[in-house]
């Protein structure tokens, strides 16, 4: 979907309302800021395992679920049922299958990227223990499944303590009109697995998702295994099992080993024991932010090029003692370069800035900070205000 014009400011509902004037704390007045104005290469194996404007009446939009023909579907069985019969596992959703999928409304349907046994499935079941976890072949598919009313929620990774940010999902947050309604921290424990009878010394290569391979780099290097990148961890386990491969193993979860009948050769092979992935919970509608417990708010904005502009943008939070927990920049796809105005033809990259801060949009200080930011940001959108995951 085409990004908005640079001059358009959008603050997503339900946070649009008048904001009272404020007095900036005196200790900051002296700032006098003009706030207004490894050598083995990976091989890739293909294993198939919006910005739109928010109208003023969005809060009153009573859009009904899409009417989808109730035709037979491969998704009627729950994706968390453990079975060694690979044919009994649900086939991941793809965009081409949308017309054959329907929710019966019996329980919450939660989309995740990957196949049964993926870490994302475990995260979805942790967030919603009684849900029907629905596998999707790509991140894009999970976003679309929520938008098209095929599922109720999506649980998708956004960053990992070892591998860093999942840039694809940052871009998709901006492209799609979904709301962040929660976050989840999930401890990742990688296992090296292979088919029955295969020993560690029989392995020449290992398959897994690029991030999983990176997180186990030291162990895999010591074992002398060639790393081959695939779409997801559980997909690697499924491929090894279904093709009965004897010279390769997979890095995936213990759940994936159980589902696909593989033997675990080594456990907890990640380089750092504190391997945590943060997931976002996405829905069609936002939740109403409160002040009864700790909240986090996620926003995205863009700025004009100039000295200290980003500093001024971040200062609107510092002036109000609001703690920032994350800042990420992503190129503005439709307008990647900007020519400077000083006639020397210098070109700059244009960026979107994604920021998470510890405050609820029900807090006046957060409202005032965004009102301040809006005065000089060329684009601003609230992606969600949601309860902070305080689990360790």
From TrEMBL:
Keywords associated with the record: Amino-acid biosynthesis, Aromatic amino acid biosynthesis, Chloroplast, Lyase, Phenylalanine biosynthesis, Plastid, Transit peptide
Subcellular location: Plastid, Chloroplast stroma
Listed InterPro entries: ACT-like_dom_sf, ACT_dom, Preph_deHydtase, Preph_deHydtase_CS
A GO BP annotation: chloroplast fission
Domain Prephenate dehydratase: 109-284
Pathway as given in its UniProt record: Amino-acid biosynthesis; L-phenylalanine biosynthesis; L-phenylalanine from L-arogenate: step 1/1
Highest taxon of source: Eukaryota
Enzyme Commission no: 4.2.1.91
Amino-acid biosynthesis is among the record's keywords: yes
Region called Disordered, residue ranges: 56-79
Gene Ontology molecular function, alphabetical: arogenate dehydratase activity; prephenate dehydratase activity
Gene Ontology cellular component terms for the protein in this record: chloroplast stroma; stromule
Domain ACT: 298-387
Chief location: plastid
Function summary: Converts the prephenate produced from the shikimate-chorismate pathway into phenylalanine.
Name by which UniProt lists this protein: Arogenate dehydratase
Lineage: Eukaryota, Viridiplantae, Streptophyta, Embryophyta, Tracheophyta
């Amino acid at each position: 979907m085409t990004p908005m014009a640079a001059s358009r400011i959008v603050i997503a509902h339900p946070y649009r309302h008048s904001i009272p004037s404020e007095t900036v704390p005196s200790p900051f007045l002296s700032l006098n800021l003009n706030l207004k104005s490894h050598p083995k290469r990976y091989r890739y194996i293909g294993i198939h395992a919006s910005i739109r404007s928010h109208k003023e009446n969005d809060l009153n939009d009573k859009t009904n679920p899409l009417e989808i023909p109730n035709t037979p579907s491969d998704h009627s069985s729950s994706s968390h049922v453990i079975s060694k019969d690979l044919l009994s596992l649900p086939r991941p959703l793809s965009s081409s299958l949308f017309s054959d999928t329907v929710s019966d409304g019996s329980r919450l349907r939660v989309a995740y990227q990957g196949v049964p046994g993926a870490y994302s499935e475990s995260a979805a079941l942790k967030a919603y223990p009684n849900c029907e976890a629905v596998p999707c072949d790509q991140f894009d598919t999970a976003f679309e499944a929520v938008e098209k009313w095929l599922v109720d929620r999506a649980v998708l990774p956004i960053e990992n303590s070892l591998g860093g940010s999942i840039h694809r999902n940052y871009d998709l947050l901006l492209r799609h009109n979904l709301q962040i309604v929660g976050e989840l921290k999930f401890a990742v424990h990688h296992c090296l697995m292979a088919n029955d009878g295969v020993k560690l010394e029989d392995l020449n290569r290992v398959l897994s998702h690029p991030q999983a391979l990176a997180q186990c780099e030291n162990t895999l290097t010591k074992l002398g295994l060639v790393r081959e990148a695939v779409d997801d961890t559980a997909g690697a386990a499924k491929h090894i099992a279904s093709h009965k491969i004897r010279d390769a193993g997979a890095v995936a979860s213990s759940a994936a080993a159980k589902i696909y009948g593989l033997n675990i050769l080594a456990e907890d092979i990640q380089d750092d024991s504190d391997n945590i992935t943060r997931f976002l919970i996405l829905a069609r509608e936002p939740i109403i932010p409160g002040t009864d417990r700790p909240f986090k708010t996620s926003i995205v904005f863009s700025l004009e090029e100039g000295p200290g502009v980003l500093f001024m943008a971040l200062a609107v939070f510092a002036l109000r003692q609001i703690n920032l927990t994350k800042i990420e920049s992503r190129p503005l796809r439709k307008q990647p370069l900007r020519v400077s105005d000083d006639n020397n033809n210098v070109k700059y990259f244009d960026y979107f800035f994604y920021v998470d801060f510890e405050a609820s949009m029900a807090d006046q200080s957060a409202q005032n900070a965004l009102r301040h930011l809006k005065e000089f940001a060329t684009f601003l959108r609230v992606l969600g205000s949601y309860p902070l995951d305080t689990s360790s």
